[in-house]
Amino acid sequence: MEKKYAKIYSTLLRRIHKGTYAAGTMMPTERELTEEFDVTRNTVRRAIDELINGGYLYRKPSSGAFVCEQPVARSLQRLSVQNDKELNKRYEKITTRVVDCHIFSQADAHKEILGLKSNARVYHLRRIQYGDGKPIVYESIYLPCDYFTKLAKDELEEPLEKIVKAHAKFGCAKRHTRIIVEAKASTKQLSSYLELAIGQPLLRMKMTVMANKIPYYYYTATYPGTEYDFLVE
């Protein structure tokens, strides 16, 4: 016999897939679901928790459970959010906010990744990209001054490929990207950038872009963990 919470889980999941509960909307309260299914609140809560664990719902403190957006399929080979066809189908407007851009020259772990000397100068660009006002991704980009010409302030919101094409001192035709994907829990800072609760799952892509076996720049992109499916093409 199917357990009561599992039956409620299946019913609610079908409603989510059919659009009965639209993405971004609040689910019925535990009390309402308790009355509808004639079960205890603990049974309803377990079904809701299973849906949250599966990435179908998320909980807002003091509010309730809300329906997640369905994941967008993205290629791991696409660096730019602005030029991503799937994201442009989903969002009417994609915008960028620059958090900070500066040159640093002190020793840093990212210089080891790029094989640079400890006193090498590196542009560090941090920015957040939004889809219809909702944070999509937090980006941290490292461009060594030895390999890139001076960046202009009005270029910092441009797609990364465009920045690289305009400023790279090396040939871009035969680049390849080494990608590491890791799962993380959202920290206080990342939660503020991506407007998430602390501890929510994140997916971080760490990319080293190389040409002729030389690492030329390094880039990390941090996404809400339930928003995307990434494809290897």
Overall description:
Helices cover 27% and strands 34% of the residues. By secondary structure, it is of the alpha+beta class. It has two domains: 4-67, Arc Repressor Mutant, subunit A; 72-231, Chorismate lyase, CATH 3.40.1410.10. A hairpin with a 2-residue loop joins strand 8 and strand 9. The protein is elongated. The mean pLDDT is 86.
**Looking across the biggest beta sheet, what order are the strands in?**
4-5-6-9-8-7
- Class by helix and strand content? alpha+beta
Overall spatial form:
elongated
Strand content of the residues, in percent?
A: 25-35%
At CATH level 2, the architecture of the largest domain is 3-Layer(aba) Sandwich
Summary tags:
single chain; alpha+beta; Arc Repressor Mutant, subunit A; 6-stranded antiparallel β-sheet; two-stranded antiparallel sheet; 34% strand; elongated
Write the layout of secondary structure elements.
Elements: H1 4-18, H2 30-37, H3 41-53, E1 57-60, E2 64-67, E3 72-75, H4 85-90, E4 94-104, H5 109-114, E5 122-131, E6 134-144, H6 160-167, E7 176-185, H7 188-194, E8 201-211, E9 214-224, E10 228-231
Parallel strand pairs: 3-10
Antiparallel strand pairs: 1-2, 4-5, 5-6, 6-9, 7-8, 8-9
